[in-house]
Amino acid sequence: MRVLLFITFIFYSFLTEAQYRFIPYQDVPLSNSSEMEFPWAGGLNGVQWGKIDLNNDGFLDLAGFDRSSGRILCFLNIDGEYEYAPEYEMFFPSEIQNFFILKDYNQDGKMDVFTAGNLGITAYENISTGGLPQWSKTLDFIRYTSLSGNDVNLQVNFNDYPFIGDLDDDGDLDILNFNFSGIESRILFYQNNSIETNGTASLNSFELVDNYWGTVEDCDCGVFAFNGQDCQDILGRVLNNKARHAGGKSISVFDFDKDGVLELVTSHEECNELYYFNNSALSNLDPNFEGFTSSYPSSNNPAQFNFYPNTMVMDLTGDASEDLIISPNIEGNIGSPVNFSSSNWLYQNVGNGYELVSKKFLQEDMIDWGAQASPAFLDYDEDRDLDLFIAYTDINSNEVLESAIAFYENVGDTQNPSFELQDSDFLNISQEGFANMFIQWQDVDVDGQKDLIIQATSGNSNQLRILFQENNEFDINSSVIIDNVFIGFGYSIHLADVIGDSHPDLLVGKSSGGLILYENIGQGRNPSFQQRSQNYLNIGDDFFRSSLRVNVMDIDNDNQQDLITSDFSGNIRVFPNLQNNTGQFDTLYSYNELIQNFDQIFFGKRNNPVFAPIFNDDYPTLILGTVSGGLRVFRNNAEYEVESGEELVFQIYPNPNENNLLFIKANQDISISIATLNGQTILSNLEYSAFGREAIDVSQLQSGLYIVSALFANGKNITRKLVIP
């Protein structure tokens, strides 16, 4: 038999993964914010909430989908109080987008997930059997029988939030949504007949039974037509043949006035209020809506955002009655801005109505400055520890977008940080009229003092400014504007010595995902930037990695600067040894205490990553500024070790192998050997790092059966049979 005499690893544009391991850390104190239960949860913007038993203890916990960041945030119900539990987030389906609804569709007592798919509504069954959530995709899309008898996909608009619930009280889930296409903006009723047809609740027997449910039509913000009226008669003008009041709409249906029938609440993505319709009929299948009010849920405190409020119904106060949580159903501030620092309004059910008890539900327990938190660290008070600065964007009293900088003094020490808010508007920068601001401290003129770099929109431009430090003082009126570099809307900047001449160069992350390098060819306080690379480190435009943000820091204590990237994918990548790197990268891994292991996770979209040695000078901590206005902290595993008690994992694929490359999957460092069945060694003691993506070239192996062995550090040996056809 001809055997393989030489085998090598095949490397791609990535290196050994899990080299960069970080641990979520919640215990950095805020000395004057003792009331905050989980300050480092990352903030909240427009959230879609649902109840679910996460830890299988018989009590419903809370999960929310933040549309801005794309994150699922989890909170355990502990003795009636909510406790932030990020360890459960990774177990939810990764494809959640646009809307997130938790409902039990098959009557097994476990909440299932409904979300938007490319072809309609996607459903995931909750198949959890123990303490960890587990899901199985039930349907890529839901189908229904149309009024004409055709089998059709049930489609929803991009920004729709449909109602999914048991409307006819027969035990299976029905669906209400505004029509996907057509001129009239009416509600369609999709009746689920699975109980009647199959005797069990499922999602395989929907029928469109009413394309004018409630005989109400949405004409415009605050304008509706009832019982056959035409929108153009109500509006007093002739309308064209385009869809009327097109755009995303939300539907919530529940028994508001406790009369035994369901009322309707709707909203529209272009409107700033909710619309409540009382049902004067005795039926949910044929309701009668003859009028509406926008003074809802409370006439004293109606829910009014500048943009698209969405109503969700659930018990959030632990009194067994259903409360209302209302949050904007949007991804970010466009058009009329929303106050994202107070964007989750809780109305408690008080028996005869609803009372507003908080505009910052759960936000009041975390750092949340509104949107686009951009952290930066500097020893501002010169006491040898790093103080925290957070640039943020929110709306001012005139309801105009405004950016400012919050300054937190580190009142701890170099290894035990503790932050205390000193100023919510450092340098009074809010007076400059900036928005969408990001900051960095960097010694631009190489005089030993850190200067303040500001990137922000001003008027119709995205500007880069430098405030040079003069003996711990800054003059905003003397800032230098860098105007010879194009910085488009949605771009990001970072200054670092990339070339290696001790002068900070400019990295520009494009909204489309590419990275541009500009060399600093100026001197001192006259920086001048010249483009060196349009796709630095081979980071080019990529839709799935758009909204690129970068940071440069030696994060592994090898005396080499590393480039860290965050983007729309939600992953964080590390390009080590920046000045000698040609495009190779690792993925940053996060520890999960439930599985006692490190894994690649979804950190969220549009993060601003910063590394700072707030615990240890050699191994910096990752601080993520989130698009939702908060911060998250991840300690470096090199200085903050955790026990890893996972089972040993060793897999080979593809198997049988016909493509000449054999991939290995292992959760610990291993030594690999390959032998024939008669014991002849083909390969021995090839070192492989945990979570790596190297491939072994097996193209010279003849057809037959081989034994692939993995030797773990604890001495345990695991073997797998490899088939070469």
From TrEMBL:
Question: What top-level branch of life does the organism fall under?
Answer: Bacteria
Alphabetically ordered keywords of this record: Signal
Checking Pfam families in the record gives: FG-GAP_3, Por_Secre_tail
All copies of the Secretion system C-terminal sorting domain together span 652-724
* InterPro entries named in the record: FG-GAP, Integrin_alpha_N, Secre_tail
Q: What is this protein called?
A: T9SS type A sorting domain-containing protein
**Organism source for this protein?**
Marivirga arenosa
